[in-house]
Each structure stands twice: as structure tokens, then as C-alpha cells.
Amino acid sequence: MGSSFNGFSLLVLVSLVISSTASGDFYQNFDLTWGDNRAKIFNGGKLLSLSLDKISGSGFQSKKEYLFGRIDMQLKLVAGNSAGTVTAYYLSSQGPTHDEIDFEFLGNVTGEPYILHTNVYAQGKGDREQQFYLWFDPTRNFHTYSIIWKPQHIIYLVDNIPIRVFKNAESIGVPFPKNQPMRIYSSLWNADDWATRGGLVKTDWTKAPFTAYYRNFNFVPATSGSSSSYSRSAWESEELDATSRRRLRWVQKYFMIYNYCTDLKRFPQGLPPECRRSRF
Ligand SMILES: *[C@@H]1O[C@H](CO)[C@@H](O)[C@H](O)[C@H]1NC(C)=O
Fold this sequence. Notes:
The chain is α+β, with helices and mostly antiparallel strands.
């Protein structure tokens, strides 16, 4: 009896350790949700790929829902002529008043830059786009795309460099995603009606299938506080440190190509309140 109890506690311990680190294995953390065999998990669960052909795109979603934490994923985007394709990687809750935190990668013809499109929805309302070029070719290697989601802010990071901060501005009446747990979703689909140069460049189906790769998913809950494996300042402190603030300014100055907060034409009645309060 004693030994079966020990066996049971060992099992519990092992599964606790696995679920609290929640990293790596795609079989364990994600379901392939559409696109039949266009979505694949391989290398023993370490690698996932999505592909798109003329008939269909594909997608996956997390088995679990998350409420606050740091989520890292490495992506290698569709190489070559990826014009017309969109790789979306985002967090979302369900329902008409859903919350959402988006990364979308808009492809381009060979040699021309991808656009990284970001948006934050709170209680069903988005319209908070910021777009960026990247300072590297996202199709050559894996790069890390992260979201730090806390009650006080959302930070988007690329290779640990903050590119966008969306602060909680509930005190001035701006809804903030903080009551609805979200799942992680990703999909690769055809959006040649708008994605590349506003829909001017169409998908070249002779180059299909288009494939994007994923690895090294990692989730750290916000409650893990002083977790020693995550001594990254952007995560630990409530505000960005001086280095992160400098990097954020560098990205926003040289790589940001659209910011809803400066789009006066779009908001003739006045910019959204969170834009008036600070630069970000
Ligand atoms: C594609 O390349 C063109 C020309 O360099 C550029 O204007 C555009 O922003 C790029 N990205 C997308 C997704 O259209």
C-alpha cells in the first residue's frame, strides 16, 4: 500500500512539474484544429508546421486557457514569395465581447519586407493597430515572439526587444483585457485581398504549399513571481527598465510604419483616450 501511494505521489509530482513549466511539447500543449494534414507536429513534439495551398490553410490552438503570464514562441515564417499569405499568432477569448492580443505576419514578394501587424481587443473592440517592419529576415531563422500579459500592461516583444506596450488605462475609461482567460491560436491563410500592399499583390499559387514553422513554446504564469528562470527585467518589474525603454524607442522610431495613436485622419473626433495620455 505504501509503495502504491508513493507511486501515485510521484505521478502527481511529475505531472505538476510538467504542467507548471508548460513548455516545449506541441502534442501536450496544442491541438491541430483545421487544414487536415497541412498542420503537422513532428520531431517528437518539438516542431510544428502549418501550410497553405490553394485548397486550404491550417491552424492550431492551445489545449489550455491562460490568464496572465509570459508566452514565448519561436516562429520561422513562410520563405520566398509569401505575398498574400498571413500567419496569425494570437491570444483570444470567446464570444461577442472577447479580448484578443494579436501578432499577424503579412507576407511579401521575395526580398521585400514582411509587415508585423499588432492589435489589442478589449471587450470586443479592437481598432488599436500598430505595424512594424522587422530588423531581420524572419524567414531565414527562428525568432522569438513574446507576449507579456499582466493586469497592468501588455508588452509585445521580438527577440526579447519590446516593440509595443499597451498600458491598462481603465482609470480613464479604456477597457483592458483582464477578466477573460484566453487560448493561444495560430493559423496560416490566404489574405491576398488585403495583406500585401493593401491587396495589390496576389498569392502566387505556383509557389504553394507555403509553410511556417514553430518551436520552443514556453509559458510562465504571472503568479510565479520570483521564478529564477525568468530574471528578465521586462517581466519582473512593473515598468520597463532603461535599456528596454531605449530599445522600444529605437523600434518605434525606425521600424514602426503605422500607429493608430497618430492617425488623426482616422479619428477626426479626436484620438482614443489611451493615445492622448502617453506616447504608447
Ligand atoms: C511589401 O513590400 C512593399 C515594397 O517594399 C512595401 O511597401 C510593403 O510595406 C511590404 N509589405 C507588405 C506586407 O505589403
